[in-house]
Write a structure and sequence with these properties.
about 450 residues, PmbA/TldD fold, 22 strands, about 20% helix, about 40% strand
Length: about 450
C-alpha cells in the first residue's frame, strides 16, 4: 500500500474521533500435500490477500476487513466502521517514521516453497508410508502430509509506524493407525518450524513414522490404570500443552482484562514451586511459534512469565497494555487480516531444571508416567482442564511398569503449579496450532520432564 492511500485511511479514522487507527495488509501463499494409504488425498495451493483496519476508542475495538484494494472503497469501509460517531475537523499532522528496524528471524539455507512446489514433498510422504508399514502387519492406515505458508505483511498506524515482515512456516504430519481387528489406535508425529523446505531436510521422516507406528502398537496392547489422585510424571515436549492451555491462556492480558483468569492481580506473588520458571519467547530462530514482530508491529521479546515460582509478567497487546498499565511484550497475534489482534502466546515453555527423569520415576511409589500428551479442553477463566494421555505407563515402586491407554489428567492450572516439585533437564519443544478469538496461529509448547506431586487421573 502506498503512503498516500494509507494516509487517507488513517485520516478518515481520526476524523471520526478514533484515538488510534491501524492498517494490516497481508498476502499469504499456502499449500498442502497429503498422502493417505499410498494415494494422494489432498493437493491444494492458494493465495489470499486482504486488508484489515482497526479503530480504537480508548480500549474499545472496532474492526473491519476486505480483499478490496480500491482506495475509495477502503475509505468508505472506515466510514461504515465508525458509523454513529461524530465527524471531527481533519488533522493532517501525521508523518510516517523511517522503516522500523528489528531483528529478523534467521532461516538458514532457506528453500522457498513457492519455487520448489508440491513435488518436493512427495519423497517425505512416501518414506513415511513405507517405513510405518514395515513395522507390523497391524499398521492398517498411514496418513502423511506436508503443509507450508509464506506471508508478507505490512502494518501502518496513526502513530507513524510503517513496517513490513515476511514469515514462512513448514510442517510435516504423520498419523499412524494400528488395529487388532476389533480396536484401532492412532499415534501422531507433527514437527514444524519457522522456515521453508530446508525444514524438511532436517526431519527423518522414516524415524518419525516408525516412532508413531511403534507407539500405536504399544497402546493397542495396553490396559487401563485405576483412576484417582496420584503423582504424575509428565514427559517432555508436547507435555507442555497443559501449561499452555491451563496457565498460558490465563496469563494473556485478553483474559486478565476481562477478569477471566485465576491470575488476576497476582503479579509478584508466589504461584508455583520455587523450581518452576516459565517463559514465552518469540525470538528463537527457526522455532515454529517465533515472530520477529507481532501483528501490531511491536518487536518480539523473551518474556519471563514465572520465575522461581513468582508471577513476573503477563503477555500483552496494545489494548491489554493500555487497560492494565503493563508493558507491551510483542504478543499481539492474529490468524490473518480477517481478525483483530489480541494477546496470544508464541513459544511458551517451562524452562529446564536440574532433575533427571530417572530420579523422578524413582521418587514415585505408585503413579502415572504420561510419556506423551494428546488433546484436551480447558476453561481459561478458571484454569480447569481435562487432557488425554496418548502414551502412558504405570509407575510402581519407582520403576516404569505396564503401558496404559485412555488415561486423562484433570485439574486446575493454578492449583497444579505449586505441586510441580521436580523439573528435568531433558527440555524439548513441540509445534502446535492454537485457536482463540483472533483465530488459529502457530505456537510452540515445551518443557522438560516434570513431576506433579498429585493430580486427578481418570482411568479410561
Amino acid at each position: 500500500m502506498n503512503r498516500e492511500v494509507a494516509m487517507r485511511i488513517i485520516e478518515t479514522g481520526r476524523s471520526f474521533g478514533a484515538d488510534f487507527v491501524e492498517i494490516f495488509e497481508e498476502e499469504t501463499r499456502s499449500s498442502t500435500l497429503a498422502l493417505k494409504d499410498r494415494e494422494i488425498e489432498t493437493a491444494s495451493a492458494g493465495t489470499e490477500f486482504g486488508i484489515g483496519v482497526r479503530l480504537l476508542y480508548g480500549t474499545e475495538v472496532l474492526y473491519a476487513f476486505t480483499s478490496e484494494e480500491d482506495p475509495d472503497s477502503l475509505v468508505q469501509m472506515v466510514k461504515t466502521l465508525a458509523f454513529g460517531r461524530n465527524p471531527l475537523a481533519s488533522d493532517s499532522s501525521l508523518n510516517f517514521r523511517p522503516k522500523e528496524e528489528y531483528s529478523a528471524l534467521q532461516m538458514i539455507g532457506f528453500k522457498d516453497p513457492r519455487l520448489l512446489g508440491q513435488g518436493y514433498k512427495m519423497d517425505f510422504l512416501h518414506k513415511s508410508d513405507v517405513a510405518a508399514r514395515k513395522v507390523s502387519e497391524r499398521i492398517v492406515q498411514v496418513n502423511a502430509s506436508v503443509s507450508d505458508s509464506y506471508s508478507h505483511i505490512s502494518i501502518i498506524n496513526s502513530e507513524g509506524l510503517f513496517i513490513e515482515d515476511t514469515r514462512c512456516h513448514t510442517r510435516l504430519g504423520i498419523n499412524i493407525t494400528a488395529s487388532d481387528g476389533s480396536e484401532r489406535i492412532v499415534a501422531r508425529e507433527a514437527p514444524g518450524a519457522f522456515g521453508g523446505y530446508e525444514v524438511l531436510d532436517g526431519y527423518d521422516a522414516e524415524a518419525l513414522a516408525i516412532a508413531a507406528a511403534e507407539r500405536s502398537l504399544r497402546m493397542l496392547e495396553a490396559g487401563y490404570i485405576p483412576g484417582g489422585q496420584m503423582p504424575v510424571i509428565m514427559g517432555n515436549g508436547f507435555g507442555g500443552v497443559i501449561f499452555h492451555e491451563a496457565v498460558g491462556h490465563p496469563l494473556e492480558t485478553e483474559s486478565i482484562r476481562h477478569k477471566a483468569s485465576p491470575f488476576c492481580g497476582k503479579l509478584g506473588e508466589q504461584v508455583g514451586h520455587s523450581c518452576l520458571t516459565a517463559v514465552d519467547d518469540g525470538t528463537l530462530d527457526g522455532v515454529w511459534g517465533s515472530i520477529a514482530i507481532d501483528d501490531e508491529g511491536t518487536a518480539s521479546e523473551r518474556t519471563v512469565l514465572i520465575e522461581k515460582g513468582v508471577l513476573k509478567s503477563y503477555m500483552s497487546d496494545r489494548v491489554g497494555s493500555l487497560e492494565l498499565g503493563v508493558p507491551l511484550t510483542g504478543s499481539a497475534r492474529r490468524e490473518s487480516y480477517k481478525y483483530a489482534p489480541v494477546s496470544r502466546m508464541r513459544n511458551t515453555f517451562i524452562a529446564p531444571g536440574k532433575d533427571s527423569l530417572d530420579s523422578m520415576i524413582a521418587s514415585v511409589d505408585y503413579g502415572l508416567f504420561a510419556a506423551k500428551m494428546a488433546g484436551g479442553s480447558v476453561n481459561p477463566a478458571t484454569g480447569e482442564f481435562n487432557f488425554a494421555v496418548e502414551e502412558g505407563y504405570i509407575i510402581e515402586k519407582g520403576k516404569i511398569g505396564k503401558p496404559v491407554r485412555g488415561a486423562t489428567l484433570i485439574g486446575k492450572g493454578n492449583e497444579i503449579l505449586p505441586r510441580i516439585s521436580m523439573v528435568g533437564s531433558d527440555f524439548a519443544n513441540a509445534a502446535g496450532m492454537c485457536g482463540a478469538s483472533s483465530g488459529s496461529i502457530p505456537v510452540t509448547v515445551g518443557q522438560p520432564s516434570i513431576k506433579v506431586d498429585q493430580i486427578l487421573v481418570g482411568g479410561r
